UniProtKB/TrEMBL annotation:
<dbReference type="GO" id="GO:0008422">
    <property type="term" value="F:beta-glucosidase activity"/>
</dbReference>
<dbReference type="InterPro" id="IPR052566">
    <property type="entry name" value="Non-lysos_glucosylceramidase"/>
</dbReference>
<feature type="domain" description="Glycosyl-hydrolase family 116 N-terminal">
    <location>
        <begin position="52"/>
        <end position="356"/>
    </location>
</feature>
<dbReference type="InterPro" id="IPR024462">
    <property type="entry name" value="GH116_N"/>
</dbReference>
<dbReference type="GO" id="GO:0007417">
    <property type="term" value="P:central nervous system development"/>
</dbReference>
<dbReference type="Pfam" id="PF12215">
    <property type="entry name" value="Glyco_hydr_116N"/>
</dbReference>
<protein>
    <submittedName>
        <fullName>Glucosylceramidase beta 2</fullName>
    </submittedName>
</protein>
Length: 409
């Protein structure tokens, strides 16, 4: 491979002046102005081949999941990427037969130093990942259980739909296939830390609260995680859809930097969470907090079941680095700009994802069924569209009285 030793000395000497000018600019930007360098050659992000299909619509920020299921890249603030894998952001499965828990496992191959009270180290041999943007599938053949879980991840990126395609949401549809000769009670717990894995998570003042949102006979329950930063505050929402045969419980707050044993034992005891009422206390400086929501159903012998969960984030009012002007995101046209839209966004996602999938399939089907196109072309054509959402796209809402100067870059 081509390395520094292969660069001729004359080329090194020729670029010394450029290097000095760059270093002066870099030092002023990062050390004096305390800003990120948009081209940072001294602190470059190392290449990691871990990234999968990003979550979210167009222009509202994205959260990227890796192909191993981790939440590993965050692009909520305009143009700013945080490459942080948050260990507490996980899905956990609990299986119960005849009133007894027979299997409980975090669906992650990691073996972290935190949350050691949880059962980690899922064997990757029993899992499979497939992506066709804006959807992705993760299949877990639970070892020794004769139960197969398929998590279908859906984001609202839909041609000619300029409402739902702007929404900062994603839906996780868990299909359960029970190959046993007896009924199985299946619970999926979705846990998430309040924040994006940066030092701001420990800045203090963050808090969580449970919510229930009901509209047109459809009920969604979950937890709001309020991240109260000075610039661009936001709210995360984890939730599940309540319906006949599906129960939803929650845990408002727990410490993701501890052992997590109380959360694990709570789920292990009866496949449900305790559902405490009221808000959590704001975190003190140096503390982090997390929350969890759990969806449960009974799957008959040789039968199938479905659990529907969602992740939404509401950062309606944004400033760029200079903080000179306030901008509203596009989705605020439909859900408001007061920072209280996360419950409505969650409800909309969980009650409309089936319509999204029909439109996505109709869009992609002619290409996928065209036998004259090679498979690599079909894959690249759709999967490389991830850059439309994850490439730093910001979709803002303009006021009716905006002028031409407002439209200039």
């Amino acid at each position: 491979p081509y390395g520094a030793a292969d660069v001729p000395l004359r080329d090194v000497l020729r670029h010394i002046g450029l290097a000095l000018r760059y270093f002066r600019w870099w030092y002023k930007k990062t050390r004096i102005e305390k800003k990120s360098a948009f081209i940072d050659l001294l602190c470059a992000v190392p290449l990691q081949q871990i990234y999968g299909c990003p979550l979210g619509g167009i222009g509202g920020g994205t959260i990227t999941r890796g192909w191993r299921g981790e939440f590993c890249r965050w692009q909520l603030n305009p143009g700013i990427y945080h490459y942080e894998t948050i260990i507490a952001d996980q899905f956990t499965v609990c299986l119960r037969c005849k009133g007894q828990t027979v299997y409980q496992q975090v669906l992650s191959v990691e073996r972290p130093s935190t949350l050691q009270g949880w059962n980690w180290g899922y064997c990757g041999h029993y899992a499979f990942y497939h992506a066709l943007y804006p959807r992705a599938w993760m299949v877990y053949d639970l070892p020794g259980q004769n139960v197969v879980l398929t998590c279908r991840q859906v984001s609202p990126v839909i041609p000619h739909d300029y409402k739902d395609s702007s929404l900062p949401v994603a839906v996780f549809i868990w299909e359960v296939e029970n190959g046993r000769d007896e009924d199985v009670d299946v619970s999926i717990m979705f846990s998430m830390q309040n924040g994006t894995g940066t030092k701001e998570d420990r800045g203090g003042g963050h808090w969580n609260e449970p919510f229930t949102f009901e509209k047109e006979g459809e009920r969604v329950t979950g937890v709001l995680l309020h991240h109260c930063t000075h610039v661009n505050p936001f709210t995360l929402a984890i939730s599940a859809r309540e319906k006949t045969g599906t129960g939803v419980t929650h845990l408002t707050a727990f410490n993701p930097a501890g052992s997590g044993r109380e959360v694990w034992q709570d789920l292990l005891w009866d496949g449900r969470l305790d559902c405490p009422t009221g808000k959590s206390s704001p975190t003190a400086k140096g503390e982090v907090t997390a929350a969890a929501v759990c969806a449960s159903c009974r799957v008959p012998a040789k039968g199938h079941g479905t659990l529907e969960m969602a992740l939404a984030w509401d950062m309606p009012r944004i400033h760029f680095g200079s903080k000179e002007k306030l901008h509203l995101r596009r989705y605020t046209r439909f859900f408001g700009s007061e920072g209280d839209a996360a419950p409505a966004l969650s409800h909309h996602a969980l009650t409309h994802y089936e319509e999204w999938e029909k439109k996505i399939e109709a869009w992609q089907k002619p290409v996928l069924e065209n036998s004259q196109l090679p498979s690599w072309y079909k894959s690249a054509l759709f999967n490389e569209l991830y850059f439309v959402t994850d490439g730093g796209t910001i979709w803002v809402e303009l006021s009716p009285d905006c002028c031409a100067e407002d439209l200039r870059g």
